[in-house]
């Protein structure tokens, strides 16, 4: 089980109830069971080496103690409370003190379930930032025609920490010609649905080629300038990217490195497969957008059929069907200062002949005008579930 140490502060024993230490111990155990992460009182050295910085204010009479120890760690400071023993009152005193010191802080107060959810968000955000700082992402041919979809590498390295590695599309073609791929559950499911074994075999060889390059160069995520494959090997990367995303390897198309970064962040924050899609039609009055693309992750739709890549009419792509439900739409740039996120509702999956193969009609309760006035390039990231709160915390903390 993963672990998270908190800095526990209790009031003076001579004026506090003797039951408080046991109460606090049981409260942390309850939170641990809810989150699936062991939460425990850490010593100062251990506490300062991890994130997030959560001070467990177990009772009243703790403000002065906090004022003497809080500088052992950099903020923001999170104050975990219990619904008894004057914990909330003490935390309000502490938060006012922090604000006077021009420090960021937040009180975590509510039911055990609510506090568990907040701690899980904080932990996931911190873990995502740690992972990103060590990541290597690869571009097998970076975007040329997408003029607003290439990251500034220096800015990304400074703000995010991850490294972008350039790889030659010709190496991918050589790997394709060498042949071979893993017969995993996604491959078997696709073969079972295929009505064109020869085309499916070619598309799966692209998957094998990209996967070998991912492993060879120790990549955590990858994008492929897939239109280069049309003339060279007469197939597309749609199926390869669909399988890689289902395996938990963020994989973007068209050499779009900015979308790859967004896709990686969204996947790490949510654990969900991510669909990189084009906004294809918008109804501002109804607050709806139709998103479509040919690379939906193989494990994201509730059902799918196999068809061809939309623009070229060749290769193999998934036409996914997803049941109505909550989704999140997200995009960011590498500055970590500009991002878009909104919780949305999937109304229906469509089957239009004039759009890319997987088509989703979404209702966006906060409106759609931002896409017309200040878009972050064209591709947007979509995953199941409502995650806007966690994503906003990622950018604000």
TrEMBL record:
<keyword id="KW-0119">Carbohydrate metabolism</keyword>
<dbReference type="GO" id="GO:0005737">
    <property type="term" value="C:cytoplasm"/>
</dbReference>
<protein>
    <recommendedName>
        <fullName>Fucose isomerase</fullName>
    </recommendedName>
</protein>
<dbReference type="GO" id="GO:0016861">
    <property type="term" value="F:intramolecular oxidoreductase activity, interconverting aldoses and ketoses"/>
</dbReference>
<keyword id="KW-0413">Isomerase</keyword>
<dbReference type="InterPro" id="IPR009015">
    <property type="entry name" value="Fucose_isomerase_N/cen_sf"/>
</dbReference>
<dbReference type="GO" id="GO:0005996">
    <property type="term" value="P:monosaccharide metabolic process"/>
</dbReference>
